[in-house]
Amino acid sequence: MTDVPVAPSHAPVLQRSAAGARRLILPLALAQFICSFAGSNMNVMITDISEDLDTTVKGVQTVITLFLVIMAVLMIPCSKLTERWGRKRCFTWGLMLYGAGALISAVSPNLGVLILGNSVLEGIGTALLIPPVYILATLWFTDLTSRAWAFGVISGLGGIGAAAGPLLGGLITTAISWRAAFIFQALVVAVIVLLSRRLEDPLKADPTRPFDLIGAILSAVGMFCIVFGILQAGTNNTLLVIFLVVGAAFLLAFFLFIRSRERAGKEALLSTRLFKNRTCNLALVTQNIQWLVLLGTSFVVSVFLQEVRGYSAIKTGVVFTAATVGILVSSLSAKRLANRFSQKTLIVAGFVVTLVGLVLLLGLVRASDSIWAFVPGLLLIGLGVGAMLPPSVNVVQSSFPEELQGEISGLSRSVSNLGSSFGTAIAGTILVSAVASGFGPYAWALTSLAVFGLIGLVAALRLPGGTPPRSA
Fold this sequence. Notes:
single chain
C-alpha cells in the first residue's frame, strides 16, 4: 500500500532549526501535560472536595475514573474524526471543550456538576485533542532520532503532569482553593491555543471520509462497561460480574463487526491490520501497564496519606516531588538514551526500576512513619516510567505507515488511558473498600500494581531486541 505523502517542508523538522522544532512541539507537549495533570491533581483534593461538595472518597474516585474512562472510550472514534475534520481543527476544538469543562468544574456546586465539567467535558475535549498530538509529531519528525526526541518531550511532559499533579494541586488547594486548580487548567489551555495558532497540518482533511458510527458505539460501550464494572468491586459484586460480561460481549461484537466491514470492502473504525503486528501489540500492553502503575500509585499513595496519615493537600503533594523529579530526569535523557540503547532495553529497564520502586514503597512505609519513607520508591517509579514511556510510544507509532497514523494513534492513546482508568479503579477500589484499616489495604493495592508491573515486564521481554523500530 502506498504511503500518504508528507509535504517536504515538514520533514525532517529537526534539520531546519532547534528553535523551529521547539515551536512545533511546545503546544503539543503542553497539551499532553495538562491532560495528564487533570488525571492526577484531584488525588490530593479528595478531602477538600468531599467536605465542600458533601460527598465521599468513593464519589471523588468516581469523578477521576470517569474522566479517564471517557477519554479512553472516545479516543479511537476521535482519532478517526481527525481525518475528516483535520488534525489541527480537532486539536483546537478539543482545547476549547476542555477549557469550558475546567471553568464549569471550578464553579460546581455539587458532585453532579463536577462530573459534567471534569469527567464529561474535559474527558471529551481530551479525546479530541490528544490523538492529533501524536499524529502530528509522527508526521513532522520522520527519522528515529528526531521522533524519539519528540515523543520524549511529549511523553515526558505527560508523565511530569501526572507526577506533578499532586504537588501543584496541593499547592493551589492549600494556598487558594481546590477550585483554583481548575482555573489554572483553563489558563494553561488558553496559552496552548495561542501557541498553536501557526501550526500547520501536513495532511489535508477529507470531509468525505466515512465514519463507522456503529463500531464507535460498540467499542465505547464495551470499554465503559469494563471499567464501570471494576468500580463496583467490593460494593456490588453482582453488578461487577454483569458489567464485565456485558463489556466483554460488546468488545467481541465490535471486533466481529469491524472484521465484517473490512470483508465487505467498507472502512471500519479500526483496521484489523493493527492487531496483526506482534511488536505493536506487545508495546501496547507495556503502554497500558505503565499508565496503570503510575496513576494507580498516585491515587493509592494520595488516599493513604490523607485518609490514614492525615496529611494536608500540600504535604501530600510535596511527597510526589520525588516522582516528578524522576520523570523529569528520564525525559531530559530520552534522546541520549535512544541513541545508546534499543527500545526494548529501555522498556525492560524501566519496568525493573519501577518494580523496585513499588517494593520500596511497601517495605519502607511499613518500617517507618516518616514522610521520607515514600521518597526512594516514588523517585524510582518516576525514573522507570519516564524511561519507558517514549520508547513504548515510538515502537507503536513507528510500526505503521502514515495512512494508519490516525487509527494507531487513537488505539495507542485509548490503551494508555484505559491503563490510567484501570489503575485508579482497581488499586483505588482495593484501598477505598477498607481505607480505615490502615496499612493493610495500602499494601494490597500496591501489590496488585506490582503484579501488573510484572505482566508488563514479561511483555517487554518478548519485544524484538537489538533493532530499533523502523521509521514510518
